[in-house]
Amino acid sequence: MTIKPAGRTLAEFQPLKPAEQKLLDACKNGKPALISAERPEAANDENTVRAAFLRFLALGGDEYAPVHEKGVQLSCAWIKDVLDMEATSVPSGLYIHNCLFDIVPVFRGTKIASTLNLGGCQLPGFFGDGLTCEGDVFLNEGFTATGEVLLLGAQIGGDLNCGGAIFHYTEDDALSADRAVIKGSVFLNKGCSTTGTVRLLGIQIGGSLECSGAKFDSKDSKNNFALLADRAVIKGSVFLNQSCAALGAVQLLGAQIGGNLVCEGAKFDGKEGYALSVDGAVIRGDVVLDQGCAALGTVRLLGAQIGGDLVCEGATFDGKEDYALSADGMTVKGTFFFRDLPSPVNGVSLADSHVGCLADDKLGWGDRLVLYGFTYDCITGDAPTDATTRLAWLNKQNMAHAGLNGDGAEFRPQPWKQLAKVLREMGHAEDARQVSIEFEHRLRKANLIGQPPKHWGKMRSRLYRQVCRTGHLLFRILTGYGYRPLRLLVWMLGVWLFCAWLYWCAALNGVFAPSNPLIFQNPEYAVCRPDYIALAPLIKATRAIQPTIQGAGNWYLCEKLREEYSGFSPLAYSLDVLLPLVDLQQETSWSPLIPTPKETWYKELFIFDTPKHWVRLVLWLEILFGWVSSLLLVAVVSGLTKRREE
After folding, report:
1. pLDDT digits over 238-269, tens only?
2. 324 contacts 297 by C-beta, under 8 angstroms
């Protein structure tokens, strides 16, 4: 006779209770044992099944209590005492439905050859650490746990189905499945409700994590997490949609999601912390926060890698004095949709993040925008590309970052260059130029023009800064910082014509004369000299020339000057002065007559009491302008002033 361990023979349980006898008969025939019409609320002789007897049958019974291959199937019973299945092997499935456990059942290290179904059961907790189940595990259809449900390190060959379940444990975690390996999907949907944290740290899910319509509430738990799934590996998608609500943080730090993260219509309330945190997660599909999705608290995507799109359409973000959307270092291979929002979002940080394309509108962006290091390949959809709207977008940044506070220490130039680069590559050349020009304005406003080395003295630094700012201002006026090269030609045309007119007026008044001294000394041209009028009586007396010569006393109008000598042309002379590398034989042949220098240097430099002094000053200024404009023109033509980011 084989000696069996305690609790493994039918004789040990005699006499059987009515419910136990009914269960024994059903197990022989492979049929469900329905003990009562519904889950009992109190124990009596008609509905009570001893946990030890249930264990006896679950392990296969004995020769006097054979169990069908379909296993134990029990419904609507009161299970008395501890159902201790620790370290056992159940040869078939275990179906315990709509039953009430008065003590926490223990399934630590249990191996179940098929399915474990506790659907509709009410129990004060469940200890299933290290549970191995070849089939599905059902904790659904009104399953209610008033204590902690532990599935740490469990291995489930099918799904973990908690649809419609109620997990209520305010002292600690309501459901813990850290490091569990589930080949199928995890269902926390169909109105599944939890009070206390749902912990899925390091869980491996072969399918999806389905939490559509779930209610996660951590308000009475010792921590602030509603759903904690750091380092989870989920081959399918994560669904937090269909009015899924979380009171407390939802956190998936470093999670790997093979599909999408869908939060359509979800409601996240982070209480005093973050609403949704997906920092460092790798999501191969899309992240969808739209169709009325609302977050009270920061939505964090720091360092997240998104293989599809990031969709934030129709969502509401409220960071409660903190950032509403914090996505520093994020990478989105697809498009970042940030549009059709009910109200502007204050506090969006996209520092050092990259998205494939940006699809937004001008109404979604609020204040406290961080764009430093944010890169994007294009602006797509109906997103505005005009410079006015885009510049207003850049001005949503922190005042210091946008260069609006006059202190350049915190000015961030990258967002301006990035925007200009993208607009130019998209073919919006004029808008790109406007952005680039405004960037130069902002550099000036932020006092970043002419920053001297720190070791320079105060006076030297001030002089250097003033020279640089003056040059920068001239660069703006003449060429629009290099982005308006035709403006320089207009300036040159205007200076040329104005100076030509001035030289013409001066020539009519006898200011200009030939530069060749042989002309001055030739008595044949004495009538052309300005002092001819004073010498006219003497010349007339000697009858050297006739006083009726046209233009007498004016070299420009004098007909006596031979045609072989280059005649004075105000237009040509002005052009010759303006273009230093061009020789029209005007500047070398003609020059203004200048009175004898003053006796003191300051009178010579600052006192202009004759038209001849003013003409000389204009001549000098035109020469300087000609050199500066010519150098700028060469620089513009050769591309040295093009501000392109490759």
Report:
1. 999 988 999 999 999 999 999 999 999 999 99
2. no
Task: Specify whether 493 is located in the same domain as 506.
Answer: yes
541 and 526 in a common domain: yes
Identity of residue 96 = I
Looking at the structure, tell me whether residues 458 and 586 fall in a common domain.
Answer: no
Check residue 12 and report its DSSP letter.
G
115 contacts 158 by C-beta, under 8 angstroms? yes
Alpha carbon distance 262, 288 (integer Å): 5
For residue 215, the cross-strand partners are 193, 245
Does residue 545 carry a pLDDT above 50? no
Spatial contact of 272 and 224, defined as CB atoms under 8 Å apart: yes
Contact between 483 and 433 under an 8 Å Cβ cutoff? The reply is yes
Q: In angstroms, rounded to a whole number, what is the distance separating the alpha carbons of residues 313 and 510?
A: 77
| 503 shares a domain with 594 | yes
Percentage of residues of the chain with pLDDT beyond 70 = 91
Average pLDDT of the chain is 88
Last residue of a domain, which of 529, 564, 599? 564
540 shares a domain with 489: no
pLDDT in tens, 459-509: 777 777 777 777 777 777 777 777 777 788 888 888 889 998 998 888 888
List, in order, residues 6 or more apart from 628 with CB less than 8 Å away: 474, 478
In this predicted structure, what is the pLDDT of residue 585? 81
CB 91 within 8 A of CB 115: no
Q: Is the pLDDT of residue 215 over 90?
A: yes
Within-domain flag for 485: yes
DSSP string, 406-442: S-GGG---HHHHHHHHHHHHTT-HHHHHHHHHHHHHH
Domain count, the chain: 3
**CA–CA dist 232, 253 (Å, integer):** 8
Domain holding 596, by residue range, is 481-516+570-646
Look at residue 278 and tell me if it is in a domain. no
Q: Is residue 118 part of a domain?
A: no
Question: CB-based contacts of 410: which residues, under 8 Å, 6+ apart?
Answer: 398, 400, 401
Spatial distance between the Cα atoms of 11 and 339, rounded to a whole number of angstroms: 72
Distance of CA 322 to the CA centre of its chain: 16
Is 590 in the same domain as 444? Answer: no
Q: Is residue 385 part of a domain?
A: no
The tens digit of pLDDT for each residue in 401-433 reads 888 776 667 788 999 999 999 999 999 989 998
The answer to whether 104 and 79 have CB atoms below 8 angstroms apart is no
Quickly tell me which residue has 């200890």 as its tokens: 127
Model confidence band, residue 7 (pLDDT cutoffs 50, 70, 90): confident
Q: Are residues 579 and 560 part of one domain?
A: no
Q: Using the predicted structure, report yes or no on whether residue 32 has a pLDDT greater than 60.
A: yes
Counting beta carbons within 10 angstroms of the beta carbon of residue 18, is it exposed (0 to 12), middle (13 to 18) or buried (19 or more)?
middle
- Is there a single domain that holds both residue 512 and residue 634? yes
